Amino acid sequence: MEIRTICSNRKARHDYRILDSMEAGLVLTGSEVKSLRAGHANLKESYARIDDGEVFLVGATIRPYEMAGRFNHEPTRKRKLLLNRSEIRKLERQVEQKGVTLVPLKLYFKGGKVKLEVGLAVGKRQHDKRASIAEREAKRDMDRARKEMNRGFR
Question: Fewest beta carbons within 10 Å, which of 23, 26, 32, 144?
Fold first, then answer.
């Protein structure tokens, strides 16, 4: 099945440590889907919340579709996520723990349907972020050195 990424929340992986992730469908209007096909979405500053046994995506922006006219949608409305009852219960138990939150990671098309990857996340402290950056830079330096070394052997 072909997967085409619409947008991803790269800042979430920087600010949070992702414990687990799952795929969820979204309840959308026609103009929202058309706008997503054009790639007009943003997951920055968005989060997922559980209300009365239902999961909602809050703060995600889907720009209005120009051709929809008066039938357009509200760009930052709350959108319901489609999950099984057992998955919602599992998420509820996890979110009740201190410091665990639901963060949208990636919005994509899968087989013609819009899907959202939601992650259970714990916020990183400032020193954790510095350690992640140092680790990434060390890996980049090692890869660069390995590449230089391979050039010399040709």
Answer: 144
Residue 65 near residue 21, CB atoms below 8 Å: no
Alpha carbon distance 126, 89 (integer Å): 31
Please check whether residues 150 and 91 belong to one and the same domain: no
Q: Is 83 helix (H, G, I), strand (E, B) or coil?
A: coil
Residue 125 has pLDDT above 80, yes or no: no
Quote the tokens at residue 138.
């060390």
Which residue(s) pair with 24 in the sheet? 116
**41-82 confidence digits (pLDDT tens):** 999 989 999 999 899 999 998 888 877 777 787 878 899 999
Q: What is the DSSP letter of 98?
A: T
Quote the tokens at residue 3: 């997967």
Range of the domain at 151: 125-154
When divided into structural domains, the chain yields a total of: 2
Kindly give the pairing relationship between strand 79-82 and strand 41-42: unpaired
Q: To which residue do tokens 């120009």 refer?
A: 66
CATH of the domain at 37: 2.40.280.10
